Amino acid sequence: MTTMRAAERREQERREYNAYLSECPGHQLLATLSDKWVTLVLNALADGPRRFSELSRTIPGASQKMLSQTVRKLERDGLISRTVTPSVPVRVDYELTALGESLLPVQRAIKTWAEAHIEEVHKARTEYDDRAC
């Protein structure tokens, strides 16, 4: 009986923690921003608007499906805007919104930090792996 109550309590704690995470602003946005394709699209648009085909050429390795999903996600979050110009073929341009532009200094700071400390991280990983064996 006690084991069942403990299991029920752990399950309740897990549900409460997951509810907390789903409402936490940092967790909500970090889940999106940590996606490698999101970072690459934001970086590609930092220099100005681009057509989908330009984004595709600028971001090698991204499938059309992945790129489409990523720009939709960013548009939904208000980080980029999509402008459709009726023509033959239809022209679709993407660009950073003010909200998206406000994220660039944060993204650049993380990149700068990573470049400055990657050797230390590699060293720590090696030391950890050596101890684990």
Helix-residue proportion: over 70%
Helix-strand makeup class? mainly alpha
What is the CATH class name of the largest domain? Mainly Alpha
End-to-end separation? 41 Å
- Shape verdict: extended
Number of domains: 2
Could you name the ranges where pLDDT drops below 50 across 5 or more consecutive residues? none
How much of the polypeptide forms β-strand, as a percent range?
5-15%
Total helical segments:
6
CATH topology of the largest domain: Arc Repressor Mutant, subunit A
For the largest beta-sheet, the strand count, sense and barrel status come to: 3 strands, antiparallel
* Largest sheet, spatial ordering of strands: 1-3-2
SSE run: HHHEHHEEH
The CATH superfamily of the largest domain is identified as Winged helix-like DNA-binding domain superfamily/Winged helix DNA-binding domain
The CATH architecture category of the largest domain equals Orthogonal Bundle
Supply Rg: 21 Å
Layout: helices, strands, pairs:
Blueprint (H helix, E strand, L loop, with lengths): L1 H22 L1 H9 L2 H10 L4 E2 H7 L5 H13 L3 E6 L5 E6 L1 H35 L1
Antiparallel strand pairs: 1-3, 2-3
